[in-house]
Design brief:
Blueprint: H1 2-5, E1 14-15, E2 27-29, E3 34-42, E4 51-62, E5 65-74, E6 93-103, E7 106-117, E8 120-128, E9 148-156, E10 158-165, E11 171-177, E12 183-188, E13 198-199, E14 213-221, E15 227-236, E16 242-251, E17 275-282, E18 288-294, E19 299-304, E20 312-316, E21 318-320, E22 330-336, E23 342-348, E24 354-355, E25 358-359, E26 363-369, E27 374-377, E28 389-398, E29 404-412, E30 430-436
Length: 438
Amino acid sequence: MLKTLLRPTMLSALLLAANTGVQAQALFDDSDQTLRIPLVMVMNTDGTANEYYSVTLRLASANPLVFALQSAAPGDESQVDGSEPFFDTATNRITLDNVQANIGGETLYYDLSMQFGAQGFSVTSLVPRDTANSDSGEQGSSGTSNFTEESGYRLTSAAASSTVELADGSFRTYFTDGYHVDIFTATSADGLNWSTPEYIQGITAQNRDGDPVFHAPSVIRLEDGSFLMAYQSTTEGSGGTQSSTIYLATSTDGVTFSGSSTEPSVMPWSGGLEVRSPGLIQLDGTTLRIYYEDYFSKLRSALSTDGGASWTPEGEIGLSGASGLYPSLDDPEIVRLASGEYRLYFAGTPVSEVTDTTASRGDIYAATSTDGLNFTMEQGLQIAGSASRRVSSPDVLTLSSGGTRLYFREITYDASGLPVYQEGCSYCGNIGSAFSRQ
């Protein structure tokens, strides 16, 4: 059965839902040293039906902590409720939230991560929880967003915006056109009504057939008032294959940028590890961090201590409490809070909303961190999608006048489930916004 669970054609991750009032779905019993996972869902990427298994692991080593597979049998599909756990075949990683451990007559709860290898399932993270089910259920099923959506669209036929506030209190936004080919910019006095967009200068393709094409900008204003942009460059290879790389560019006026895809990259495409959707933040004078998603839609980060001249990959970020989310997270956006903590916004889809390999909706979530590397999910949605619309590409701005504005991309779908065709292209989308007084 292990061979079946680890088939490379499956794209999934073992995430265990912790529903309020529901018994923990993984149980460690100290009396027989076993970890029982009653129901594991394996989602096939070849269009065939999902598969479910009941898995038992036995403790093989206490130092280091390693579990061996004891058994894997077909699961009881009558118990399927959309919150089933996953095994991530791309990374061979298992993440279990809210594991009940019966140890020496005491009941404890843990968040547990394991990496599968030649020795078995090695425990890479074991974090105690204060109480059972503190996640309060599947993401998106509970909690209240602080954001109120604002009527209308800020921009049409646009995607992946990044907005900064200027010294005079006005705003400049950068965004990808509907074809995901070029980067445009526009200005606004109020952050809601925007000027006619124009191409940025210096790194623009300016044609639909450009190769490479530039998109997904993330722009910050540095302490000296200049602009620093991270952006994605995508090149199409033979047979329709694509490779994406992240580059930096700088500007003194916010319109003309220096930098091109001939310069050294922040994070290069290498051996199939495509990188995309950068989210940039300045930690202090010369220290920068960039968040991005890899080929498997895992969120990662890299650090620069020399103003972006060189970068050190930091690996996949930690994200606890992400139970119930399909393991494909997109479009990271990072902000620094007044408390010094970090809040990460990203797009995701509940497992219960996924049919075969097609997500029927997308939502925007948030997670917080004290170190910018290990995050804990916040409850509830920031912006909710539905069967008729998918929201993604969060762009978050803390306003000097108070409050926070969140811009997002929205794609609407007709009754047949197809994206609404607009202004010459499908999947163009529009930019909406929401406001929070916090």
